[in-house]
User: What shape does this take?
Amino acid sequence: MGRKSDSDHASPAKSAAALRSLRSAIDRLDLQILKLVNERASLAGEIGRVKNDQGAEVFSPAREEEVLENVLAANKGPLDPATVRAIYREIMSGSRALQKVLKVAYLGPEYSYSHLAAVERFGQNIEYMRVGSIASVFEEVNRSHVDFGVVPLENSTDGGVTDTLDMFMRLPQLKICAEVRLKIHHNLLANCEQEMIRRVYSKPQALAQCRNWLSKNLPHADLKDVSSTAVAAQLAQQEPGAAAVASRQAAVKYGLRILFPDIEDYPHNETRFAVIGNQETSRTGKDKTALMFRVPHNPGSLVEALEVFKQNKLNLTWIESFPAKTGKQEYMFFVDFEGHVEDPKVKRALTALEKHAIELAVLGSFPIALLSD
Assistant: This one.
């Protein structure tokens, strides 16, 4: 074999030098980024003091959506939009905490989908309170034990979440301040092999969203309902022959293997969550308004009520019926439509709807959320 050339000997040294140069450049940029992030936080602190003087709220969903929309529109890569969104979510969360550390309730334990939705909306610089039921989330907000709550509102496979709709009927004074749209990817988690699984734990809605996959691949396993997907993961960790339908994050948290990823029956499965509180959200120009109303149990009553939206050119984005619990065969209707309660045509529609409805409550106006993966 011939002797190696000088260039061959120099190649590793040149590569090492290039690597050091690139890392030095990153170190310089990190210091610049840190300086700019802290300058931004100082400005956010000044805004907080102005808000405090005006008696304004710390959490501003409209402004936060505007910030995200601006940076995502300006992003040229190579970072993908989800990464940019996550970075700015935490920057805003830390800046918000300089003004006030918010308290947020969610259906726990940690790494349930409600917890993931809460983190997606508020970030990590929050005092989170996990509770055992959707009703408890509403009660904690209503009693002012927390500033906000995060509850599931509807799923693209199963429709409206009955516990949430029921609590809006019980506590209609609480407002939807923001929404979170979360892609739901279910995974089969276990620390045993597929053929050894005898029980599968999960929340009823999660099991329903995977019913076809489970019946095909685990026909002999008993499906067990529990209060959340995170509780299911805890049980799968503790019991021999048990599995859970839950998130990837729950697998990491509870030390479980992902035997099969993405087992949901429909690939576009998503859940929309409502951020509930006592504050009104200002107009952005890209908003939704949520209503709850009841009409007389007469032929054509619902058609007449819905005609109001058509006449005012308001696009309905969601409608759900729910037993009114009045002792009669009546229903409460929940609707979302595009527009803000301060828009003139929305005001006209509400005035007209009042003439048709026995009962009417505005559940809130809030910015239209982007879908988060």
About this structure: The two ends are 55 Å apart (CA to CA). The chain has four domains: 32-99, 101-184+269-279, 187-260, 280-373. The chain has a mean pLDDT of 91. The first helix runs from residue 6 to 54.
